[in-house]
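Hi P.,

Sorry for the delay on this. The queue was packed all week, but I finally got your sequence through. Input first:
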Amino acid sequence: MNYFPMGDQKRAFLNAEGADKPLKSPVPHETLLKARRYRISRIRELLVENECGAILLYDPVNIRYAFDCSNMQFWTAHNPIRYALIFADGPGIMFEFKSCEHLNEGLEGIDEVRVAKGWMFMGAGDRVSEYVGNWADEIADLIQQYGGGNKRLAIDRMEPEGVFALQERGSVIVEGGQITERARSIKSPEEIELMRWTIRVCEAGMARIFEHSYPGVTEQELWAHLHFENARSGGDWLETKLLTCGSNTNPWYKECSDRPCQAGEMISFDTDMIGPYGYCADLSRAWTCGHTPMNDKQMELYSAALDQINHNLIR
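Then the structure:
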């Protein structure tokens, strides 16, 4: 129910075309293919620049960037069970969670799919040393086969046991975060097109929040509308829970709660939305609960925020 229907200007600004159905991406598949080729080339370009023979990726965000494969991203962010090994002048190998190998079919950057060897304590228990040894032997064999004699191996994140095991097998470990961050810092035109679609989905989610900003709704209920719009349109997750109203807005960084919003209070949020294609839409908005006119203090804050934006735009 739209308790406070949007005016035409607000509806156009927030792009609420998906109010009654999920948004379907108009981005051509060829655009996605070009973005994939560009991203893997960026990884290899930075490997060469840093004189590394290969990079071992465990961060699911980096794996998504390099290969565009997605599987249990939140779970694998704290359970290191799937990983990717990409050579500067050799194959890209995806080590996938057992029985999930089919999720990587049709992804052009992946030359080979293998079953991942997990060695975290939750799965290995008191056999961690044995498991990590088997895992390190496989990685070392691949470096010997495809590394061209280059033993410099970049790694984005890893527990100490794995680092020590690879070093014992001759690898020279290089901090890989600098490579992935610099690779992602320069976007191709195709990536920008994909990012624009993520932003459009985010705008539809913000429109849903706006239309449900009536007195009595809780912060958590409002936040759920962005989750809903993102999920049904093919997005992934929200990085934070930054939506608050009234006194909860100051100091900032409080997470949304079960506090009901009151008429006239400011509702403020920061989306931090990982949307379709794995890109982030980090947009901030604020309006009053019940869409009432702003009071003098709210107008003062709004004007200060607008001045800052305009100042940054011209510098």
